[in-house]
Amino acid sequence: MKRYIAAANWKMNKDVQESIDFTNHLTKFVLNLKRTDVILCPPFTSLFNIGELLKKTTVYLGAQNMHFADSGAYTGEISADMLKSTFCEYVILGHSERRHVFNESDSMIHKKLLTALEKGLKPILCVGETLEERQSGRTVSVLKQQYTDAFAGLSEGEMGNCIIAYEPVWAIGTGVVASSEQASEAHKEIRSMIASQFNLRLANEIRILYGGSVRPDNAEELIATADIDGFLIGGASLSVEPFVLIIQSIENYLEKQEK
Ligand code: PGA
Fold first, then answer.
1. Is 209 close to ligand 1, i.e. is its CB under 6 Å away?
2. Which terminal CB of the chain, N or C, has fewer other CB atoms within 10 Å?
3. Residue 245: domain span
4. How far is the CA of 100 from the centre of ligand 1 (A)?
5. Is the C-beta atom of 91 inside 6 A of ligand 1?
6. What is the CATH number of the domain that holds 119?
7. Residue 165 Cα: closest atom of ligand 1
8. Is the pTM of this model over 0.70?
């Protein structure tokens, strides 16, 4: 059975000590997860310490961004090798805040994706439309553009190492969550893009996460939605309790499915 994912995107929150305290607290609650992979994506400054703590656990470490070059004169940037030296295994790429606040282009995101894969990091590639794009009926074409530019030219093996996160921009940090219908429609579209670029087997295997105002009180409904294989969680991942409740919703849902 496919393993689902609960990924915490802390964004620019938590200093080193706060990250350590959270991790020590969280790992007590997520010792025996049978069906869910938990990934913590702290800020760069906490990666090394959290990586050390997570070595003895089943929780994975991810970064929130990286540069596409191997090394060089890129003041303020972090390379894939640097991430790997902290025991990081995943990296979020193309988050809407990177696209919209830091002007990352589809071609830059593609370069980052290729470097991540070459270095053995698993990308969590984010796609999603703005409110204006949705209201003007362009959701599918925006997703298609972002998908096509990001994954152009990948081999089946490379694609198999990718995770996709559908995050409608209007739902991120706003408290407005996508309805099950809106999320499932977008996830189906993305799956059919994978099927036409590769094949149906790979399309079904790849985990497509939903992100945007996921909370304990909506997680149960969302996780039962067709084609949602887990969550990328911002605000509700900043405290242990709501994050654990969301993880439990995923485990409970999958447990019921197995019966
Ligand atoms: P949110 O953020 O859960 O706070 O909406 C999600 C994200 O940006 O990944």
1. no
2. C
3. 4-258
4. 14
5. no
6. 3.20.20.70
7. 9
8. yes
pLDDT tens-digit readout, 67-82: 999 999 999 999 999 9
Residues in the chain with pLDDT < 70? none
Cα of 222 from ligand 1 centre, angstroms: 15
Q: Is the CB of 235 under 6 A from ligand 1?
A: yes
- Count up the domains in the chain and report the number: 1
Q: Is the CB of 242 under 6 A from ligand 1?
A: no
Q: Given this model, what pLDDT does residue 30 score?
A: 86
Token couple for 209: 């996460």
Indicate if ligand 1 lies below 6 Å from the C-beta of 234.
yes
Q: Which atom of ligand 1 is nearest to the CA of 236?
A: 3
- Specify the pLDDT at position 53: 97
Residue 258: predicted pLDDT: 86
pLDDT of residue 17: 98
The residues, ordered by sequence, that sit 6+ positions from 74 with a Cβ below 8 Å of its Cβ are: 67
72 alpha carbon – ligand 1 mean position (Å): 32
The CA distance from 145 to 148, in Å, is 5
